[in-house]
Every structure is written in C-alpha cells, then in structure tokens.
UniProtKB/TrEMBL annotation:
<dbReference type="GO" id="GO:0005886">
    <property type="term" value="C:plasma membrane"/>
</dbReference>
<feature type="transmembrane region" description="Helical">
    <location>
        <begin position="12"/>
        <end position="28"/>
    </location>
</feature>
<feature type="transmembrane region" description="Helical">
    <location>
        <begin position="48"/>
        <end position="68"/>
    </location>
</feature>
<keyword id="KW-1003">Cell membrane</keyword>
<keyword id="KW-0472">Membrane</keyword>
<protein>
    <recommendedName>
        <fullName>DoxX family protein</fullName>
    </recommendedName>
</protein>
<feature type="transmembrane region" description="Helical">
    <location>
        <begin position="75"/>
        <end position="93"/>
    </location>
</feature>
<dbReference type="InterPro" id="IPR032808">
    <property type="entry name" value="DoxX"/>
</dbReference>
<dbReference type="InterPro" id="IPR051907">
    <property type="entry name" value="DoxX-like_oxidoreductase"/>
</dbReference>
<keyword id="KW-1133">Transmembrane helix</keyword>
<dbReference type="Pfam" id="PF07681">
    <property type="entry name" value="DoxX"/>
</dbReference>
<comment type="similarity">
    <text>Belongs to the DoxX family.</text>
</comment>
<feature type="transmembrane region" description="Helical">
    <location>
        <begin position="105"/>
        <end position="126"/>
    </location>
</feature>
<keyword id="KW-0812">Transmembrane</keyword>
Length: 140
C-alpha cells in the first residue's frame, strides 16, 4: 500500500473535519450579526430584513445545516453564492487586493463551499446516513 492509498482512505473523514470546522466558524458570523455573540458587529446588529440580516440568517441556518451535513450540496451552493456576493459588493470595491480589502475569508468560504457542492459532505453526515449505498468510490 502506497502512502497515497493510505492517506486517501481517510479522505471522507478529512472532508468531514473541514466541513464541521468551516460550519462552526461560519455560524459565528451569523450569531454575531443576529445576537451580538461573541461580540456585536462594529456597525451594530442589523435589522433582520436588511441585506446583512438576511446574510446573518443564511450564515447561521446554512452553517447549521452544513455542520450536520444535511442537504449539503444545495446549501453549500447557496452559501458559496452568498460569499461571492459579499466579496464583490463589500470587499472588492475597497481594493483589488484581498489582503487590503478584508475579503480573504469571503473568498475562502466561497471556494470551500464550492468544494462541498462537488464532493458532498464526507463522513459523519445526515446526508450520508440517509442514502442507501455508496455513490462514489471514496464512500465505500
């Protein structure tokens, strides 16, 4: 067995760890905007029916769904879109350089969520528990 084979068999678990950690951190953005936890945003808690309020709901509810790996692909698609919109509407106009415009996280979230659109949730997910058999070679 080569090192690639030995590491490759842990891909579903590594993907699940990425999914869980990403979701937990992403959810904090939603709780910050909705509840002021762990600290309120500098601009204050946004109205629920504002662009930031809708984003906060997506971050909290979408993050929770991603955390449990439930409806992972469609939810990840929506969240990737949210992060793309956030980057181009709020970060990119400040500067073309992500390190200067504060958009690093939005870019990373966008592409991590896109990864989940194509890979699914990995191990330890509601989606995985709901299906009857493996659909991909790494899920065997």
């Amino acid at each position: 067995m080569t090192n690639h084979d030995a590491l490759g068999r842990w891909s579903p678990q590594a993907l699940a760890v990425l999914r869980i950690v990403t979701a937990l951190i992403f959810m904090l953005h939603g709780t910050q905007k909705l509840f002021g936890f762990p600290a309120p945003p500098e601009s204050g808690i946004p109205p629920l029916m504002s662009l930031f309020g809708v984003g906060a709901v997506l971050e909290l509810v979408g993050g929770l769904l991603i955390l449990f790996g439930f409806l992972t692909r469609p939810v990840a698609f929506v969240l990737a879109g949210e992060m793309a919109v956030a980057y181009w509407m709020f970060h990119a106009p400040r500067s073309m350089y992500p390190a200067l415009n504060g958009g690093d996280a939005a870019i990373l979230y966008c592409f991590v969520f896109l990864l989940f659109v194509f890979t699914g949730p990995g191990a330890w997910s509601v989606d995985g528990a709901r299906k009857t058999g493996p659909r991909h070679s790494w899920e065997r």
